[in-house]
Design brief:
203 residues; 9-stranded mixed beta sheet; Dihydrofolate reductase family protein; Dihydrofolate Reductase, subunit A; RibDG_C; alpha/beta; DHFR-like_dom_sf; 22% strand
Length: 203
């Protein structure tokens, strides 16, 4: 069985909506599209590139798929070569036309379809796709969470972990890695069980 990795950019208040550009996802009147751009640094770019080593499939929500399909086929370089070459699996409630080569629409039983994808591949990356991420978090259908935290707060927008998430344990896989602009990479693995409780005043 392969692994599913969630690759996510977020603010300190865990907003993950539209990091890449103003028109990426303005839904809900979100006015901070492109918030990641002023904080980009070559160190973060190297972290992202290293994180995609071994990737052999992408798992995307419909909105992210549409953005990627309009952009990556016309690009060159390592990411374009990877994204254009690997299979793309798309979660959607509708029946979209998937024009990007290598794209497959997942069936209506999303958890079952994702489990089948994980069986077929070694490393499946989920990029952005916050609505899809909520399903994967609720179902605990992921193996690693790679979270780039940026030193800003926005106060509004879609969250990386939204209401309805289930109690989950995670464990840190590597020491946190910071960039000169204050972005911190946190790599977590999915843990067993649910969070324990205790009494700090006991004893």
């Amino acid at each position: 069985m392969g692994q599913i990795h969630l690759e996510l950019f977020a603010t300190l208040d865990l907003v993950g909506q539209a990091p890449g550009g103003p028109d990426e996802d303005p839904s809900g009147g979100f006015g901070f599209g492109g918030w990641q751009a002023p904080l980009m640094h070559p160190d973060a770019g190297a972290q992202v590139q290293a994180s995609y080593a071994g990737t052999d499939a992408l798992l995307l929500g419909r909105r992210t798929y549409d953005i990627f399909a309009a952009y990556w086929p016309r690009q060159t370089g390592p990411f374009a070569e990877l994204f254009n070459a690997v299979p793309k699996y798309v979660a959607s409630r509708g029946a979209p036309e998937l024009s990007w080569a290598g794209s497959t629409l997942l069936g209506p039983d999303l958890p079952a379809a994702v489990r089948e994808v994980r069986e077929r591949h070694e490393v499946v990356k989920v990029v952005g796709s916050l609505d899809l991420v909520q399903t994967l978090l609720r179902e605990k259908l992921f193996d690693e969470l790679h979270l780039w935290l940026h030193p800003i707060t926005l106060g509004a927008g879609k969250k990386v972990v939204a209401d309805g998430a289930v109690p989950t344990n995670l464990h840190l896989l590597d020491p946190p890695a910071a960039t000169p602009t204050g972005t911190v990479l946190l790599r977590y693995g999915l843990g067993e069980g649910t969070p324990a409780t205790g009494d700090m005043t006991a004893g």
